[in-house]
């Protein structure tokens, strides 16, 4: 629906509003403050009722542009009424000489519910204080009504002078629109602006606007595929559309996008695409403002569901309603990118944007094209690949793929004209081209390039080529996952994973990935690894498990890409198992031999192990900023080395008793400068599991810590150590052993705001607990992190000593931290006696929340279960806690009735994700009396 087809009169009875305001002013005593106060309820009611009608119309017709135009019309009428009142009752002699104009977004005749009102008040050359007072009165009324008003009061001469100096002012004046007052001033401004400014500065303006756009994109992460995009400022958002129109208006002297069709800049289909994109983005933005009651521009997780519902999206197999909505959003953002390329290509053809630093004759001389060696289809134009002639793709569609290959080989950027031609020739990418051996050879060369495969793949994706050439990839283009864990859409994630693999391949980030960088040069099936990385999530969004479905897709695609049967089998296995190594490393006890043997049984070969490690690293790194850290790297390396020993036949079968004895002797030897009495006492302080799993360096640290605590006669003590490489901080706790000790420590960490990543739990031979809690690092600076860790340590000591009570401190923390009601995670509890030879493994999955770990461990203590080790893993909003437990005599939990009780109790705790936080903690969480706790003994680390 075009603007002229909208019936605006139903939004506001302007005549009645004028009468009401006149009546208020007539009754006034002449005091301006009293008149303003009396006007407010009348104007506010009219504004609120009009905007509510605009909101209802948005729900009815779904048009965002119509809504934005309705709100702009309402705002115009309010300003007109106020202006008329000022001219009639307040400053009748001066107001008629003032021109009130809208600028910026408001100047385009569109306004979101929470947008600023940008106004330019034009004064005649000879202006008076009374004119400025009239402007002030109008502004004060708008401010009193709660509007955010951006304003300037200038003469036409001042506007022209300032627009020569300031590109922002120039852009604002470009969209000046008359509202009321002296129309001749606004017309004079328009005439002089185009004659004195626009006619002589087209290339400069275009370069400035494109530069601003690039800077804005870079600030936002330079991708349109962030899962919480900024609808106004983000890549592919409304600001990009506005930038296009600014450029078109400045260069082509058009008032509407439709006029670009008549000029041949856009096709009619592209113009319709422009309309649809703008209308959709305005609909999203207006719904966001109405929903939040403010100028919210970030489409965050907590409002995405409701926006999707308001826009009428419904779930489909494999995709929720919100995921379908967000996929549509990202496809629209991609359309905006296509339009940008097309317009830039048209400008290039007219030489509207000269090369940086070159103008006039020099620029035209330097713009001559050069032949690219070995290529007859393409030429080089200022470092960009361009078509030798317009018919290249029609003569040979394989050239569509070849263009990207040649650009990669020669390090060329892409001429907008070439990208426009690709966008208009996508229909040439059909089954015949997809099966073409040369096209697939070129694609594999791009994918495995040693230059920058990710950049080329991203250009292919943005141009729509990748999704057409690999239809299965096309299904996941712009697909988002409604999860805090995933920062990008699926297609962007896969391309970033290829980028991570390429960086490892080049030997980059050797400090972060020492093992992967060491292994990569020896990977024999390099092509298979690159294909597996590109395709590992290609089946996301299906009802079937994406690993299984993805393996089936790979089975179909690999022969097409030219891979041999053995390579295909390897790619299929890697995709089928691409989550295995990450999940085992993060959720299983790597000191438990059964963990390693089960993993090795699945992997079966060293080649698979090497490639799976590198694929896992690339996958995690591509999830988003901050997801990868050194702690995860350490876990993966530990699992790799343990499995490598087993697969290569090097796993030691020396008895655990003998290895523990050797470890004890090594510790005693390391304490050679201690007295004989202390060496004997402290080297014999630990049981077998500790001696076999803790490195000698840490054993020495621990016994030194324990001896210092003994000399100070401390029943409770903590020790902290930072590890910047692993992004982990260790907090070691020495305390009288107690069945609820881990629960108390977990609660204290929750109260201190610490995120626990792992827990190493040991009992000494004299009945004390030596627990090392690994918490995620928060500060980069070691001094800051040590202070934070010391605070956490004091909190643990205070709770254990009874100086603080957990219910109060956790409740305080929970109130301070906003409860996440945006996401739901299906709670799950599993019990397994097959994952470990000695322990029962409990795995609890649910929505993360403050104090959850403390509640779970408290329940385990209630159930008389002894926790031997714990793994705490968080994936965005979802937590997976794994516990290796026995009963109090060191046996697995095999009784079915008892297993049922455990399941029921744990499900009750984890299922409370939808409830309000309970008041306080379970009654089981108490701080033990240090004096009596030594009489309560567990066997958690003695088995």
TrEMBL record:
Domain ACT per the UniProt entry, residue ranges: 730-811, 841-920
SUPFAM superfamilies, sorted: ACT-like, Nucleotidyltransferase, Nucleotidyltransferase substrate binding subunit/domain, Poly A polymerase C-terminal region-like
Domain of life: Bacteria
Residue segments, region Uridylyltransferase: 1-373
Residue span of region Disordered: 920-943
Documented activity regulation: Uridylyltransferase (UTase) activity is inhibited by glutamine, while glutamine activates uridylyl-removing (UR) activity.
Pfam families with a match to the protein in the record: ACT, ACT_ACR9_3rd, GlnD_UR_UTase, HD, NTP_transf_2
Gene3D superfamilies assigned to the protein according to its UniProt record, in alphabetical order: 3.30.70.260, Beta Polymerase, domain 2, cca-adding enzyme, domain 2
Gene Ontology molecular functions: [protein-PII] uridylyltransferase activity
Cofactor(s) needed for function: Mg(2+)
Record EC number: 2.7.7.59, 3.1.4.-
Comp. bias regions, Polar residues: 932-943
Domain HD: 490-612
Swiss-Prot/TrEMBL catalytic activity: [protein-PII]-uridylyl-L-tyrosine + H2O = [protein-PII]-L-tyrosine + UMP + H(+); [protein-PII]-L-tyrosine + UTP = [protein-PII]-uridylyl-L-tyrosine + diphosphate
Keywords: Hydrolase, Magnesium, Multifunctional enzyme, Nucleotidyltransferase, Repeat, Transferase
Family under the similarity heading: Belongs to the GlnD family.
Function, in words: Modifies, by uridylylation and deuridylylation, the PII regulatory proteins (GlnB and homologs), in response to the nitrogen status of the cell that GlnD senses through the glutamine level. Under low glutamine levels, catalyzes the conversion of the PII proteins and UTP to PII-UMP and PPi, while under higher glutamine levels, GlnD hydrolyzes PII-UMP to PII and UMP (deuridylylation). Thus, controls uridylylation state and activity of the PII proteins, and plays an important role in the regulation of nitrogen metabolism.
Free-text note regarding domains: Has four distinct domains: an N-terminal nucleotidyltransferase (NT) domain responsible for UTase activity, a central HD domain that encodes UR activity, and two C-terminal ACT domains that seem to have a role in glutamine sensing.
Listed name of the protein: Bifunctional uridylyltransferase/uridylyl-removing enzyme
